[in-house]
User: What shape does this take?
Amino acid sequence: MKMLEMKNIRKSFGDNEVLKNISFDVEKGEVLAIIGPSGSGKSTLLRSITQLETIDSGEIIICGDTLVSSTGYDGKAQYVSKKERAAISRHLGLVFQNFNLFPHFSVMRNITEAQRKVLGRSKEASEEIARKLLKKMGLENKENAYPCELSGGQQQRVSIARALALSPEILLFDEPTSALDPELTGEILKVIRELAEEKMTMIVVTHEMLFAEGVADKVIFMDKGYIIENGTPEEVFKNSENERTKAFLSNYNR
Amino acid sequence: MTAESQIEVLPPWCIKMTLQNILTQLGGGMLKTIILFFSTLIIALPLGLLVSFGRMSKLSIGKHFKPIKLITQIYISVMRGTPLMLQIMVVYFGPYYLFGIKISSAYQIYAAIIAFSINYAAYFAEIYRGGIESIPQGQYEAAKILGFSKSQTFFRIVFPQVMKRILPSITNEVITLVKDTSLAFVIAYAEMFTMAKRIAAKETSMIPFVAAGIFYYVFNLLVAIVMNRIEKKMAYYK
Ligand SMILES: Nc1ncnc2c1ncn2[C@@H]1O[C@H](COP(=O)(O)OP(=O)(O)OP(=O)(O)O)[C@@H](O)[C@H]1O
Ligand SMILES: [Mg+2]
Assistant: This one.
Protein backbone atom coordinates (compact mmCIF):
# COMPACT_ATOMS: atom_id res chain seq x y z
CA MET A 1 0.00 0.00 0.00
CA LYS A 2 1.31 3.40 -0.96
CA MET A 3 1.56 5.85 1.95
CA LEU A 4 2.97 8.70 -0.07
CA GLU A 5 2.94 9.45 -3.77
CA MET A 6 4.91 12.35 -5.14
CA LYS A 7 4.43 13.08 -8.83
CA ASN A 8 6.35 15.63 -10.88
CA ILE A 9 6.83 18.08 -8.02
CA ARG A 10 8.22 21.48 -8.94
CA LYS A 11 9.01 24.27 -6.56
CA SER A 12 10.89 27.54 -7.01
CA PHE A 13 11.94 30.33 -4.70
CA GLY A 14 11.88 33.28 -7.08
CA ASP A 15 14.13 32.30 -9.98
CA ASN A 16 15.74 29.50 -8.03
CA GLU A 17 14.10 26.19 -8.93
CA VAL A 18 14.72 24.01 -5.90
CA LEU A 19 12.64 20.93 -6.76
CA LYS A 20 12.83 19.86 -10.37
CA ASN A 21 10.26 17.30 -11.38
CA ILE A 22 10.53 15.14 -8.28
CA SER A 23 8.64 11.82 -8.29
CA PHE A 24 8.78 8.93 -5.85
CA ASP A 25 6.58 6.71 -3.69
CA VAL A 26 6.80 5.42 -0.16
CA GLU A 27 5.22 2.08 0.78
CA LYS A 28 3.68 1.24 4.15
CA GLY A 29 6.29 0.27 6.71
CA GLU A 30 9.10 1.48 4.52
CA VAL A 31 12.01 3.63 5.69
CA LEU A 32 13.20 6.06 3.07
CA ALA A 33 16.49 7.89 3.59
CA ILE A 34 17.09 11.06 1.61
CA ILE A 35 20.72 12.07 1.22
CA GLY A 36 22.44 14.75 -0.78
CA PRO A 37 24.67 17.80 -0.53
CA SER A 38 23.66 21.01 1.21
CA GLY A 39 21.17 23.06 -0.80
CA SER A 40 20.02 20.14 -2.90
CA GLY A 41 16.40 20.63 -1.79
CA LYS A 42 15.96 17.91 0.84
CA SER A 43 14.39 20.14 3.46
CA THR A 44 12.21 21.86 0.90
CA LEU A 45 10.96 18.44 -0.15
CA LEU A 46 9.98 17.48 3.41
CA ARG A 47 8.47 20.91 3.99
CA SER A 48 6.38 20.51 0.85
CA ILE A 49 5.00 17.19 2.09
CA THR A 50 4.18 18.68 5.51
CA GLN A 51 2.61 21.85 4.06
CA LEU A 52 5.22 24.19 5.47
CA GLU A 53 5.86 25.11 1.81
CA THR A 54 3.51 25.06 -1.14
CA ILE A 55 4.58 23.52 -4.42
CA ASP A 56 4.19 25.18 -7.82
CA SER A 57 3.07 22.12 -9.71
CA GLY A 58 2.76 18.38 -9.30
CA GLU A 59 0.70 15.98 -7.27
CA ILE A 60 1.00 14.83 -3.67
CA ILE A 61 -1.15 11.98 -2.35
CA ILE A 62 -0.83 11.10 1.33
CA CYS A 63 -2.41 7.87 2.61
CA GLY A 64 -4.68 7.86 -0.40
CA ASP A 65 -5.86 11.45 0.11
CA THR A 66 -4.93 13.96 -2.55
CA LEU A 67 -3.34 17.03 -1.01
CA VAL A 68 -2.54 18.84 -4.22
CA SER A 69 -2.82 18.12 -7.91
CA SER A 70 -2.07 19.82 -11.20
CA THR A 71 -4.78 18.69 -13.54
CA GLY A 72 -5.68 22.14 -14.90
CA TYR A 73 -4.62 23.26 -18.38
CA ASP A 74 -1.95 25.54 -16.89
CA GLY A 75 -0.38 22.76 -14.81
CA LYS A 76 -0.51 24.91 -11.68
CA ALA A 77 -0.75 23.20 -8.33
CA GLN A 78 -4.23 23.18 -6.86
CA TYR A 79 -4.59 22.45 -3.18
CA VAL A 80 -7.66 20.91 -1.60
CA SER A 81 -9.74 22.87 0.92
CA LYS A 82 -8.31 24.11 4.19
CA LYS A 83 -10.31 21.54 6.13
CA GLU A 84 -9.05 18.66 3.99
CA ARG A 85 -5.49 19.95 4.24
CA ALA A 86 -5.75 19.94 8.03
CA ALA A 87 -7.10 16.39 7.97
CA ILE A 88 -4.31 15.22 5.66
CA SER A 89 -1.68 16.80 7.86
CA ARG A 90 -2.97 14.57 10.71
CA HIS A 91 -1.39 11.63 8.85
CA LEU A 92 2.06 13.16 9.28
CA GLY A 93 4.51 13.86 12.05
CA LEU A 94 7.68 15.88 11.64
CA VAL A 95 10.83 15.92 13.72
CA PHE A 96 13.00 18.99 13.29
CA GLN A 97 16.73 19.36 13.28
CA ASN A 98 16.62 21.75 16.24
CA PHE A 99 13.72 20.03 18.05
CA ASN A 100 11.44 23.09 18.33
CA LEU A 101 10.08 21.97 21.66
CA PHE A 102 7.91 24.49 23.48
CA PRO A 103 10.28 25.86 26.14
CA HIS A 104 7.56 27.10 28.49
CA PHE A 105 5.90 23.67 28.70
CA SER A 106 7.15 20.76 30.75
CA VAL A 107 8.13 17.60 28.90
CA MET A 108 4.74 16.14 29.78
CA ARG A 109 2.81 19.13 28.52
CA ASN A 110 4.87 19.26 25.33
CA ILE A 111 3.55 15.77 24.58
CA THR A 112 -0.01 16.17 25.86
CA GLU A 113 -0.96 19.66 24.67
CA ALA A 114 -1.73 18.76 21.05
CA GLN A 115 -3.40 15.50 22.05
CA ARG A 116 -5.79 17.48 24.20
CA LYS A 117 -6.34 20.65 22.20
CA VAL A 118 -6.18 19.17 18.71
CA LEU A 119 -7.41 15.60 19.11
CA GLY A 120 -9.61 16.35 22.13
CA ARG A 121 -8.25 13.52 24.25
CA SER A 122 -8.76 13.69 27.99
CA LYS A 123 -5.97 14.75 30.32
CA GLU A 124 -5.68 11.24 31.75
CA ALA A 125 -5.67 9.50 28.38
CA SER A 126 -3.10 11.85 26.91
CA GLU A 127 -0.84 11.57 29.95
CA GLU A 128 -1.02 7.80 29.81
CA ILE A 129 0.02 7.87 26.16
CA ALA A 130 2.79 10.35 26.97
CA ARG A 131 4.14 8.18 29.79
CA LYS A 132 4.25 5.13 27.55
CA LEU A 133 6.15 7.06 24.90
CA LEU A 134 8.54 8.59 27.42
CA LYS A 135 9.29 5.12 28.72
CA LYS A 136 9.97 3.95 25.21
CA MET A 137 12.32 6.91 24.73
CA GLY A 138 14.12 6.11 27.99
CA LEU A 139 12.89 9.32 29.61
CA GLU A 140 10.44 7.99 32.18
CA ASN A 141 11.80 10.21 34.97
CA LYS A 142 11.79 13.42 32.93
CA GLU A 143 8.11 14.21 32.59
CA ASN A 144 8.29 17.23 34.88
CA ALA A 145 11.52 18.60 33.46
CA TYR A 146 11.62 21.59 31.13
CA PRO A 147 13.31 21.33 27.74
CA CYS A 148 16.12 23.66 28.86
CA GLU A 149 17.05 21.14 31.54
CA LEU A 150 17.62 18.35 29.02
CA SER A 151 20.52 17.43 26.77
CA GLY A 152 20.09 17.81 23.02
CA GLY A 153 19.62 14.09 22.61
CA GLN A 154 16.96 14.01 25.32
CA GLN A 155 15.19 17.00 23.77
CA GLN A 156 15.14 15.28 20.42
CA ARG A 157 13.67 12.15 21.98
CA VAL A 158 10.95 14.28 23.58
CA SER A 159 10.19 15.80 20.22
CA ILE A 160 9.92 12.33 18.68
CA ALA A 161 7.53 11.37 21.50
CA ARG A 162 5.54 14.53 20.88
CA ALA A 163 5.14 13.61 17.22
CA LEU A 164 4.32 9.97 17.95
CA ALA A 165 1.68 10.93 20.51
CA LEU A 166 -0.62 11.99 17.67
CA SER A 167 -0.21 8.55 16.05
CA PRO A 168 0.98 9.74 12.65
CA GLU A 169 1.03 7.26 9.80
CA ILE A 170 4.23 8.68 8.38
CA LEU A 171 6.99 10.17 10.49
CA LEU A 172 9.37 12.56 8.77
CA PHE A 173 12.77 13.60 10.10
CA ASP A 174 14.83 16.52 8.84
CA GLU A 175 18.42 15.84 9.89
CA PRO A 176 17.39 14.75 13.39
CA THR A 177 20.98 14.38 14.58
CA SER A 178 22.69 17.34 12.90
CA ALA A 179 22.29 19.67 15.89
CA LEU A 180 23.67 17.09 18.29
CA ASP A 181 27.15 16.35 19.57
CA PRO A 182 28.48 13.24 17.87
CA GLU A 183 28.22 11.17 21.05
CA LEU A 184 24.48 11.93 21.24
CA THR A 185 23.55 11.04 17.67
CA GLY A 186 23.66 7.33 18.49
CA GLU A 187 20.75 7.52 20.93
CA ILE A 188 18.52 9.15 18.31
CA LEU A 189 19.52 6.74 15.57
CA LYS A 190 18.77 3.89 17.94
CA VAL A 191 15.24 5.23 18.49
CA ILE A 192 14.67 5.52 14.74
CA ARG A 193 16.02 2.02 14.26
CA GLU A 194 13.55 0.70 16.85
CA LEU A 195 10.70 2.48 15.12
CA ALA A 196 11.81 0.90 11.86
CA GLU A 197 11.63 -2.52 13.47
CA GLU A 198 8.04 -1.74 14.46
CA LYS A 199 7.36 -1.03 10.79
CA MET A 200 6.74 2.67 11.24
CA THR A 201 6.70 4.38 7.85
CA MET A 202 9.46 6.98 7.91
CA ILE A 203 11.24 9.46 5.69
CA VAL A 204 14.59 10.51 7.08
CA VAL A 205 16.76 13.26 5.66
CA THR A 206 20.21 12.50 6.98
CA HIS A 207 23.92 12.94 6.60
CA GLU A 208 24.54 9.70 8.51
CA MET A 209 25.48 7.42 5.63
CA LEU A 210 26.10 4.34 7.75
CA PHE A 211 22.68 4.75 9.27
CA ALA A 212 21.04 5.24 5.87
CA GLU A 213 22.77 2.18 4.56
CA GLY A 214 21.94 0.09 7.59
CA VAL A 215 18.36 1.05 8.35
CA ALA A 216 16.72 2.40 5.20
CA ASP A 217 14.77 0.21 2.80
CA LYS A 218 15.16 2.81 0.08
CA VAL A 219 17.63 5.63 -0.46
CA ILE A 220 17.11 8.72 -2.56
CA PHE A 221 20.14 10.78 -3.50
CA MET A 222 19.28 14.36 -4.43
CA ASP A 223 21.46 16.95 -6.07
CA LYS A 224 20.55 20.46 -7.24
CA GLY A 225 16.84 19.75 -7.07
CA TYR A 226 16.96 16.47 -8.99
CA ILE A 227 16.61 12.92 -7.80
CA ILE A 228 19.81 11.32 -9.03
CA GLU A 229 19.32 7.92 -7.44
CA ASN A 230 16.33 6.10 -6.04
CA GLY A 231 16.98 2.53 -5.00
CA THR A 232 17.92 0.11 -2.28
CA PRO A 233 20.91 1.02 -0.11
CA GLU A 234 22.89 -1.63 -1.95
CA GLU A 235 22.08 -0.08 -5.33
CA VAL A 236 22.90 3.46 -4.22
CA PHE A 237 25.86 2.90 -1.94
CA LYS A 238 27.58 -0.05 -3.59
CA ASN A 239 26.66 -0.30 -7.22
CA SER A 240 26.01 3.22 -8.41
CA GLU A 241 27.50 4.05 -11.77
CA ASN A 242 26.61 7.71 -11.47
CA GLU A 243 29.60 10.09 -11.21
CA ARG A 244 27.81 12.60 -8.97
CA THR A 245 26.67 9.89 -6.57
CA LYS A 246 30.15 8.44 -6.40
CA ALA A 247 31.71 11.86 -5.85
CA PHE A 248 29.24 12.66 -3.08
CA LEU A 249 29.70 9.34 -1.31
CA SER A 250 33.48 9.51 -1.55
CA ASN A 251 33.34 12.61 0.66
CA TYR A 252 32.19 10.38 3.46
CA ASN A 253 35.14 8.27 4.51
CA ARG A 254 33.32 5.09 5.13
CA MET B 1 16.32 79.66 65.31
CA THR B 2 15.85 76.09 66.46
CA ALA B 3 12.86 73.97 65.70
CA GLU B 4 11.82 74.09 69.31
CA SER B 5 11.69 77.83 69.45
CA GLN B 6 9.62 77.84 66.21
CA ILE B 7 7.01 75.69 67.82
CA GLU B 8 6.86 78.11 70.71
CA VAL B 9 6.06 80.95 68.32
CA LEU B 10 3.20 79.14 66.57
CA PRO B 11 0.33 77.78 68.61
CA PRO B 12 0.59 73.96 68.59
CA TRP B 13 -3.00 73.33 67.27
CA CYS B 14 -2.13 75.33 64.18
CA ILE B 15 0.71 73.04 63.04
CA LYS B 16 -1.29 69.98 63.87
CA MET B 17 -4.27 71.14 61.85
CA THR B 18 -2.12 72.09 58.92
CA LEU B 19 -0.29 68.78 58.78
CA GLN B 20 -3.49 66.84 59.09
CA ASN B 21 -5.06 68.99 56.44
CA ILE B 22 -2.17 68.54 54.11
CA LEU B 23 -2.20 64.81 54.50
CA THR B 24 -5.95 64.43 53.96
CA GLN B 25 -5.82 66.57 50.88
CA LEU B 26 -2.81 64.68 49.58
CA GLY B 27 -4.64 61.46 50.30
CA GLY B 28 -7.32 62.46 47.82
CA GLY B 29 -4.64 63.17 45.25
CA MET B 30 -3.00 59.85 45.97
CA LEU B 31 -6.23 57.99 45.26
CA LYS B 32 -6.65 59.79 41.95
CA THR B 33 -3.09 58.97 40.94
CA ILE B 34 -3.72 55.33 41.71
CA ILE B 35 -6.97 55.36 39.70
CA LEU B 36 -5.19 56.91 36.73
CA PHE B 37 -2.33 54.42 37.00
CA PHE B 38 -4.45 51.27 37.07
CA SER B 39 -6.96 52.49 34.49
CA THR B 40 -4.11 53.23 32.11
CA LEU B 41 -2.59 49.79 32.56
CA ILE B 42 -5.90 47.97 32.22
CA ILE B 43 -6.63 49.75 28.94
CA ALA B 44 -3.15 50.19 27.47
CA LEU B 45 -1.84 46.65 27.94
CA PRO B 46 -4.50 44.95 25.77
CA LEU B 47 -4.81 47.95 23.45
CA GLY B 48 -1.05 47.83 22.87
CA LEU B 49 -1.33 44.19 21.83
CA LEU B 50 -4.04 45.10 19.35
CA VAL B 51 -1.93 47.95 18.00
CA SER B 52 1.06 45.64 17.64
CA PHE B 53 -1.10 43.30 15.54
CA GLY B 54 -1.97 46.26 13.34
CA ARG B 55 1.68 47.22 13.14
CA MET B 56 2.55 43.70 11.93
CA SER B 57 -0.47 43.42 9.62
CA LYS B 58 0.38 42.07 6.19
CA LEU B 59 -2.98 43.02 4.70
CA SER B 60 -2.17 44.87 1.52
CA ILE B 61 -3.99 46.66 -1.24
CA GLY B 62 -2.03 46.27 -4.44
CA LYS B 63 1.57 45.22 -4.06
CA HIS B 64 3.03 47.53 -1.45
CA PHE B 65 0.25 49.57 0.15
CA LYS B 66 -0.48 48.13 3.60
CA PRO B 67 -3.16 50.40 5.06
CA ILE B 68 -3.43 48.96 8.57
CA LYS B 69 0.30 48.80 9.03
CA LEU B 70 0.66 52.37 7.78
CA ILE B 71 -2.03 53.78 10.05
CA THR B 72 -0.64 52.11 13.16
CA GLN B 73 2.87 53.15 12.20
CA ILE B 74 1.79 56.80 12.01
CA TYR B 75 -0.14 56.46 15.27
CA ILE B 76 2.87 55.01 17.07
CA SER B 77 5.27 57.56 15.72
CA VAL B 78 3.01 60.52 16.66
CA MET B 79 2.43 59.14 20.16
CA ARG B 80 6.12 58.60 20.73
CA GLY B 81 7.24 61.74 18.93
CA THR B 82 5.16 64.35 20.77
CA PRO B 83 5.11 65.25 24.48
CA LEU B 84 2.60 63.36 26.58
CA MET B 85 1.71 66.65 28.25
CA LEU B 86 0.62 68.03 24.91
CA GLN B 87 -1.42 64.91 24.19
CA ILE B 88 -3.23 65.26 27.50
CA MET B 89 -4.10 68.85 26.64
CA VAL B 90 -5.30 67.90 23.16
CA VAL B 91 -7.58 65.20 24.53
CA TYR B 92 -8.93 67.51 27.20
CA PHE B 93 -9.38 70.73 25.24
CA GLY B 94 -9.85 69.13 21.81
CA PRO B 95 -13.62 68.61 22.08
CA TYR B 96 -14.10 72.31 22.84
CA TYR B 97 -11.84 73.69 20.11
CA LEU B 98 -12.93 71.17 17.49
CA PHE B 99 -16.64 70.84 18.16
CA GLY B 100 -17.43 73.63 20.61
CA ILE B 101 -18.46 71.14 23.27
CA LYS B 102 -18.41 72.67 26.73
CA ILE B 103 -15.89 70.91 28.96
CA SER B 104 -16.95 70.03 32.47
CA SER B 105 -14.43 69.20 35.16
CA ALA B 106 -15.95 65.71 35.33
CA TYR B 107 -14.25 65.12 31.98
CA GLN B 108 -10.80 65.60 33.54
CA ILE B 109 -10.41 62.05 34.72
CA TYR B 110 -11.62 60.59 31.43
CA ALA B 111 -9.36 62.87 29.42
CA ALA B 112 -6.38 61.87 31.54
CA ILE B 113 -7.15 58.15 31.25
CA ILE B 114 -7.75 58.37 27.48
CA ALA B 115 -4.55 60.33 26.85
CA PHE B 116 -2.41 58.06 29.02
CA SER B 117 -3.93 54.91 27.55
CA ILE B 118 -3.39 55.80 23.90
CA ASN B 119 0.10 57.05 24.66
CA TYR B 120 1.18 54.00 26.62
CA ALA B 121 -0.52 51.64 24.16
CA ALA B 122 1.89 52.93 21.51
CA TYR B 123 4.92 52.14 23.66
CA PHE B 124 3.52 48.77 24.69
CA ALA B 125 2.76 47.96 21.04
CA GLU B 126 6.41 48.32 20.11
CA ILE B 127 7.45 46.19 23.06
CA TYR B 128 4.96 43.47 22.10
CA ARG B 129 6.08 43.60 18.50
CA GLY B 130 9.72 43.18 19.47
CA GLY B 131 8.76 40.23 21.65
CA ILE B 132 6.55 38.56 19.06
CA GLU B 133 9.14 38.95 16.33
CA SER B 134 11.81 37.43 18.57
CA ILE B 135 9.97 34.09 18.79
CA PRO B 136 11.71 31.66 16.42
CA GLN B 137 9.84 30.59 13.29
CA GLY B 138 10.33 26.98 14.38
CA GLN B 139 7.79 27.44 17.18
CA TYR B 140 5.10 28.32 14.65
CA GLU B 141 6.13 25.47 12.39
CA ALA B 142 6.08 22.92 15.20
CA ALA B 143 2.65 24.19 16.27
CA LYS B 144 1.33 23.98 12.73
CA ILE B 145 2.54 20.41 12.23
CA LEU B 146 0.92 19.39 15.51
CA GLY B 147 -2.38 20.80 14.25
CA PHE B 148 -2.83 23.82 16.52
CA SER B 149 -5.05 26.53 15.10
CA LYS B 150 -3.70 30.04 14.57
CA SER B 151 -5.26 31.38 17.75
CA GLN B 152 -4.18 28.37 19.81
CA THR B 153 -0.67 28.86 18.48
CA PHE B 154 -0.65 32.49 19.46
CA PHE B 155 -2.26 32.31 22.86
CA ARG B 156 -0.86 28.99 24.09
CA ILE B 157 2.56 28.89 22.53
CA VAL B 158 3.74 32.30 21.35
CA PHE B 159 2.23 34.78 23.80
CA PRO B 160 3.39 33.16 27.06
CA GLN B 161 6.93 33.17 25.74
CA VAL B 162 6.56 36.78 24.60
CA MET B 163 5.40 37.85 28.07
CA LYS B 164 8.49 36.40 29.68
CA ARG B 165 10.78 38.09 27.20
CA ILE B 166 9.20 41.53 27.40
CA LEU B 167 8.62 41.68 31.13
CA PRO B 168 11.74 43.79 31.89
CA SER B 169 10.73 46.35 29.25
CA ILE B 170 7.16 46.42 30.56
CA THR B 171 8.49 47.00 34.07
CA ASN B 172 10.43 50.02 32.82
CA GLU B 173 7.32 51.48 31.24
CA VAL B 174 5.21 50.87 34.32
CA ILE B 175 7.73 52.67 36.51
CA THR B 176 7.77 55.56 34.08
CA LEU B 177 3.98 55.58 34.16
CA VAL B 178 3.95 56.05 37.93
CA LYS B 179 5.99 59.22 37.53
CA ASP B 180 4.21 60.33 34.35
CA THR B 181 0.84 60.44 36.11
CA SER B 182 2.02 63.75 37.57
CA LEU B 183 1.70 65.24 34.08
CA ALA B 184 -2.07 65.22 34.51
CA PHE B 185 -1.59 68.46 36.46
CA VAL B 186 -1.75 70.35 33.12
CA ILE B 187 -5.50 69.82 33.02
CA ALA B 188 -5.81 70.37 36.76
CA TYR B 189 -6.76 66.74 37.35
CA ALA B 190 -6.36 66.64 41.09
CA GLU B 191 -3.85 63.81 41.29
CA MET B 192 -1.03 63.66 43.81
CA PHE B 193 1.31 66.17 42.22
CA THR B 194 -1.41 68.72 41.45
CA MET B 195 -2.55 68.59 45.05
CA ALA B 196 0.99 68.87 46.37
CA LYS B 197 1.59 71.95 44.25
CA ARG B 198 -1.66 73.55 45.33
CA ILE B 199 -1.15 72.94 49.02
CA ALA B 200 2.48 73.96 48.87
CA ALA B 201 1.51 77.30 47.38
CA LYS B 202 -1.27 77.89 49.87
CA GLU B 203 0.66 76.88 52.96
CA THR B 204 4.08 78.04 51.76
CA SER B 205 5.45 74.71 52.90
CA MET B 206 7.77 72.08 51.43
CA ILE B 207 6.03 69.26 53.28
CA PRO B 208 3.55 68.48 50.47
CA PHE B 209 6.38 68.04 47.97
CA VAL B 210 8.34 65.84 50.34
CA ALA B 211 5.24 63.78 51.00
CA ALA B 212 4.55 63.54 47.25
CA GLY B 213 8.14 62.46 46.61
CA ILE B 214 7.91 59.76 49.23
CA PHE B 215 4.60 58.61 47.79
CA TYR B 216 5.96 58.23 44.24
CA TYR B 217 9.06 56.50 45.53
CA VAL B 218 7.15 54.00 47.65
CA PHE B 219 4.67 53.40 44.83
CA ASN B 220 7.52 52.54 42.48
CA LEU B 221 9.16 50.40 45.10
CA LEU B 222 5.96 48.36 45.30
CA VAL B 223 5.79 48.17 41.50
CA ALA B 224 9.36 46.91 41.39
CA ILE B 225 8.64 44.28 44.04
CA VAL B 226 5.52 43.05 42.26
CA MET B 227 7.21 42.90 38.86
CA ASN B 228 10.18 41.13 40.38
CA ARG B 229 7.81 38.51 41.81
CA ILE B 230 6.23 37.96 38.40
CA GLU B 231 9.64 37.70 36.78
CA LYS B 232 10.69 35.09 39.32
CA LYS B 233 7.49 33.18 38.69
CA MET B 234 8.32 33.04 35.01
CA ALA B 235 11.90 31.98 35.60
CA TYR B 236 11.02 28.30 35.71
CA TYR B 237 12.43 27.91 32.21
CA LYS B 238 15.14 29.59 30.18
N1 LIG C 1 12.41 30.17 2.27
C1 LIG C 1 13.32 30.18 1.26
N2 LIG C 1 13.41 31.25 0.46
C2 LIG C 1 14.30 31.27 -0.56
N3 LIG C 1 15.14 30.26 -0.86
C3 LIG C 1 15.09 29.16 -0.09
C4 LIG C 1 14.18 29.07 1.01
N4 LIG C 1 14.34 27.86 1.59
C5 LIG C 1 15.31 27.24 0.90
N5 LIG C 1 15.76 28.00 -0.13
C6 LIG C 1 16.79 27.62 -1.11
O1 LIG C 1 16.41 26.38 -1.66
C7 LIG C 1 17.55 25.58 -1.88
C8 LIG C 1 17.35 24.24 -1.23
O2 LIG C 1 17.32 24.42 0.17
P1 LIG C 1 17.05 23.23 1.18
O3 LIG C 1 17.02 23.83 2.53
O4 LIG C 1 15.85 22.48 0.73
O5 LIG C 1 18.34 22.33 0.99
P2 LIG C 1 18.82 21.08 1.83
O6 LIG C 1 19.05 19.99 0.86
O7 LIG C 1 17.87 20.82 2.94
O8 LIG C 1 20.20 21.56 2.41
P3 LIG C 1 20.90 21.25 3.83
O9 LIG C 1 21.55 19.91 3.72
O10 LIG C 1 21.90 22.35 3.98
O11 LIG C 1 19.83 21.31 4.87
C9 LIG C 1 18.74 26.35 -1.39
O12 LIG C 1 19.36 26.96 -2.49
C10 LIG C 1 18.14 27.39 -0.48
O13 LIG C 1 18.91 28.55 -0.51
MG1 LIG D 1 17.97 20.94 5.05
